[in-house]
Design a protein that fits this description.
The chain is an alpha+beta fold. It is 40% helix and 21% strand. The protein has six helices and five strands. The protein has helices spanning 87-103, 111-124, 131-146, 161-172, 185-202, 208-217; strands at residues 5-17, 21-28, 32-38, 57-64, 69-78. A hairpin with a 4-residue loop joins strand 4 and strand 5 (69-78). Helix 1 packs antiparallel against helix 2. The longest helix has 18 residues, at 185-202. The protein is elongated, with a radius of gyration of 18 Å.
């Protein structure tokens, strides 16, 4: 077997395989999105049981394989366990994971997406910005990082200056500074309408977690 490598990343998806194994998708800083198998990770005494769950952020020691990696060890830096204590907050988090999984590809740099995901999950656990605004900031920045996002021109008379400025701030801001502003309910609604229209027009899939989230908050 090849020599071990160590990558920093976050688990986006975890699925059972066979009787005791897991297949996980990890977004890594070094190699983008990768697929890994965690042997025996579903055994109750496995050291990989909790460290291969979604939202887990840390350092992954892996053995490269032909089509996937094998997990040898995970050094957890953040479990984000607090997300799961509130079903609504958890569903926002799963939606963020699903969006990032959609936008990222294997072997393509994903440093900004990993950073965006980390700070966005932290923002969900903070009371400084509403959950609905965290969602809209996350969505718009994720679209921008992909290179396809709605742009409101200065001369556009159909949208308010406050909405245009909010989007401008998201585009220009460093990821670490995204969640440092608030907007009125009217502006938040306007932002949502712009983002939803763009998503429905340009993204060719439905996000299951978003549909479940709507059932909880609508």
């Amino acid at each position: 077997m090849s020599d071990k490598i160590e990558l920093t990343g976050m688990v986006l998806l975890s699925q059972p395989v066979g009787d005791y194994d897991k297949r996980i998708v990890v977004l890594t800083k070094e190699f983008g999105k990768i697929t890994c198998f965690a042997r025996g990770a579903r055994r109750v005494n496995s050291a990989l049981l909790a460290s291969t769950d979604p939202f887990t952020f840390g350092d992954f020691e892996l053995f490269p394989g032909k089509d996937a990696y094998s997990v040898a060890k995970v050094t957890v830096k953040e479990h984000f366990r607090d997300l799961t204590e509130n079903p609504t907050v958890a569903m926002y988090g799963f939606y963020f994971l699903e969006v990032v999984n959609y936008y990222t590809r294997e072997n393509l740099d994903a440093t900004d997406y990993l950073k965006l995901l980390y700070v966005s999950l932290k923002a969900l656990l903070s009371d400084k910005v509403s959950l609905k605004l965290v969602r809209r900031i996350f969505e718009y920045k994720a679209m921008q990082l992909f290179g396809e996002y709605p742009v409101l021109e200065e001369e556009d008379g159909t949208h308010t200056k406050a909405c245009k400025y909010a989007f401008y701030y998201i585009v220009q801001s460093r990821i670490e500074k995204l969640y440092t502003f608030t907007v009125t309910d009217d502006v938040l609604k306007e932002m949502g309408e712009v983002i939803d229209k763009f998503r429905d027009t340009h993204i060719d899939r439905k996000f299951n977690s978003l549909e479940m989230l709507h059932l909880q908050i609508d």
